[in-house]
Amino acid sequence: MSIFETSDSAWSALTKQFEQMSGSPGAPLIVQSPTIFRPLTITGVNPAISLLRKLLLGDNQPAYHNLNQTAYSQSNKSVQKGYIQYLQTLLVEMTKRVSSPIDYDEIAKLQKIYIKSQSALNIFTRDANKDWVLQKKNNPGLSRKTWDDNYCPEGFTPKQTLLKKDTLAKYGALQSKQSAYPALTRATMALFNCEMNAKEIINLPLSEDDLAEPDLWVPFLRTNLEPGMKWDDFFNKDAPQNIEIMSNSFHSEHYDSSWSAGGSFSYGFFSCGGSASGGHVEDRLKKGTQKLKFSFKRMITVQIQRGGWYDEGLLSYTGYVDKEEFWGPRGMLNLIPVSAVIGRGLTIEIETTSEAYDSFRDWRRTSGSAGFSFGPWSVGAGANSSTNSSSISDESTGTTLRFTDNSDQIYILSVISMKMDEYFKSKVYEEKALQDIKKLELLSGEVSERMKSLQEYWVK
């Protein structure tokens, strides 16, 4: 049977091709083939917007499913948020087991004091930022200084500075008390880095409309994409490469395991509008297609690099937290993206039968602006499309459907993630855990120096 005859087998074969393109990493790394090639519009825009889009790709977690429906900034799950929640839980549970009975009460008390102080700072800053955005919207001529001076009796900046100094003092007291416990010291330092270390935080605009108002930009923890070359070379120097699947292509074992967080859904591999005639065309494409080829002018794998806030070694302490809460199918950190495949300059070709070819051509002539998709390449006007009909050229001939995307925009082609429930069963995890023990042995002597460095950023 041809792999194109069922959508699942076609998606599985496409996933297999992206696995091979990524070096067939194997468990615990998984490659997800997206249901839509989403644009990664990082060229021709302000550098801050470019950085935001690269950050979102690295920070948003794909859906826990063998198909990657959320390849680009559509997920409501964040590595940053999940990691901070993990650190908070880890610190509480680790203290119960690591600290001696004589120290536990005092350490637990200081932890609560520090977390309360940090929470007060976070809430104050969050509420103030919301107020600033609202006031600025209602009064575009309002200056930041005028708002700052009048936000509260002390003024926003003086009040925030006091809260920062108080939090830093509470942090210092806690670290001093638990200095004999390197694991606690390390977890506390990681939490502090996520929430207060200025070196790890970058403010970015959420849209091009915000570019002129830097005071409206939102703080993120540093995350970026590393292409292994100059971005200009990726944009301007072609190195053609293809991804293709044949009617007898192999399946992906990982895809065929059909893992998910529950529920089921299906995405048609071929889609032609929503009419009955479109469904007839889809059936002919399924039965008649022999080969599907995506050709790119340039296609590369980019590595996801997180800043010093992300201490990966702390994820080794799996015994201190509820595995299902963090690593299970519905967990906060069930998939952690490590790299992605991106490409530009797309041309797509489908070799099929004359019957399927003619049916599609007739349907397109009579359907007007109706959208269609071949695998993850979707043409339409909606948000769930790769591109629109005005950006493509139809070069079909004989029995080969051929379209070129003339926008030369960058697409996210696949995302490679660490599947955490498999990671903690792997030899890779065992080796990293042993390395982490050595790291802890070196940590205790570094605390005072790191605190001095942090003070340079927060204490004026």
Helix content: 40-55%
Q: Give the topology string: H per helix, E per strand.
A: HEEHHHHHHEEEHEHEHEHEHEEEEEHHH
Cα-to-Cα separation, first versus last residue: 71 Å
Rounded to the nearest angstrom, the radius of gyration is: 26 Å
Strand content: 15-25%
Largest sheet: 9 strands, antiparallel
**Total of helices:** 15
Low-confidence parts, pLDDT < 50 over ≥5 residues? Answer: none
The whole-number mean of residue pLDDT values reads 87
The tally of beta strands, per DSSP, is: 14
Structural class assignment = alpha+beta
Task: Categorize the overall geometry.
Answer: globular
Features:
460 residues, alpha+beta, 9-stranded antiparallel sheet, 3-stranded antiparallel sheet, 15 helices
